[in-house]
Amino acid sequence: MSTIVEARGLKMYFPVGRTLGGKPKRLLKAVDDVSFSIQKGETFGLVGESGCGKTTVGRCLVRLYEPTDGRIFFDGQDIAHLGEKSLTPYRRRMQMIFQDPYASLNPRMTVASIIAEPLRYAGASKAYQTERVRELVDLVGLKPDHLQRYPHEFSGGQRQRVGIARALACNPEFIVCDEPISALDVSIQAQVINLLHDLQERMGLTYLFIAHDLNIVKYISDRIAVMYLGSMVELATSDELYANTLHPYSKALLSAVPIPDPKLEAQKKRQIIEGDVPSPINKPKGCAFSSRCPLACDKCRQSAPTLKEAAPGHFVACHLVEAQG
């Protein structure tokens, strides 16, 4: 497989407060030196606690944010700092499905207008817009009589299908799925996940799938990256990450995943992470996880580990793993 999206040294800092001269007083380091690549046709999972920078990474990749530093390659072209005019051809090839299926839809527009909006910006004819919208409604499992209704008339699952149809309007190759099921009922989540999986197989799509639910990420993802406080701490294939977890933070996350068997769940040893997540404005020296890691040593508190290959295709940023290896 060939690479479709690659991030190199990606950083996204937000200013917090301003001096009289207009300079930022402090910087919130939402994403701090993240690098990875996504292959065509794969689903790349991104997991971590709230506020770790997952959504910011996704928004940078589709250039809703211009990164502070680093490079973003889409199909070999660096798009990190392209102007809006130069970005236009790439806008059609990459899209985003948002977390909240209600807030991301204009309540004053009908479903037909919402789905057709990307086509209007792309300059498509009205005849093509009408035909394409009908195709997309059928593709995502909605009915033709839904086209003239408004978002408030639908359930959360139906609204998310509208959002998916809108993302597919211009035939993109890469889609950022930003926690697309977290706001939905559990009974609806599986339907949306299966829809995304079917669309990927039918259309050859590539996904960045951002989520909290590690069971869902394991089910849908080919590879999974774990983020903590703006940095990537572990990256491996889905099976490898679950079978051979290396980073202490990843182990704690996975230990929190419930097991359907009550007996096994009762026997399972939970790894509790104590303390609060440090502020991304004032990150600790050394490893960002050192203040909460029960295994942290002096080296962890002094120098930040880099993401290194501990096993074929399995990368981890941890001094303890380096010492064991």
Radius of gyration: 21 Å
Strand order of the largest sheet: 6-7-8-3-9-10-12-11
Strand elements, count: 12
Mean pLDDT: 90
Distance between the termini: 29 Å
Low-confidence stretches: none
Regarding quaternary structure, how should these chains be classified? single chain
Order of helices and strands: EEEHEEHEHHHEHEHEEHHHHEEH
* Broad shape: globular
Helix content: 25-40%
Strand content: 15-25%
Largest sheet, described in full?
8 strands, mixed
How many helical stretches?
A: 12
What keywords describe this structure?
single chain, 12 helices, globular
What does this structure look like?
It is a single chain. This protein is of the alpha/beta class. It is built from twelve helices and twelve strands. The chain has helices at residues 54-61, 84-91, 111-121, 126-139, 156-168, 186-203, 214-220, 238-243, 248-255, 262-267, 298-302, 319-324; strands at residues 3-18, 24-39, 43-47, 69-74, 77-78, 94-97, 174-178, 206-210, 223-228, 231-237, 308-311, 314-316. Strands 6-7-8-3-9-10-12-11 form an eight-stranded mixed beta sheet, with helices on both faces. The chain has a four-stranded antiparallel beta sheet with strand order 2-1-4-5. Strand 9 (223-228) and strand 10 (231-237) form a beta hairpin. Helix 3 crosses helix 4 (126-139), helix 3 packs parallel to helix 5 (156-168) and helix 4 packs across helix 5 (156-168). It is globular, with a radius of gyration of 21 Å. The mean pLDDT is 90.
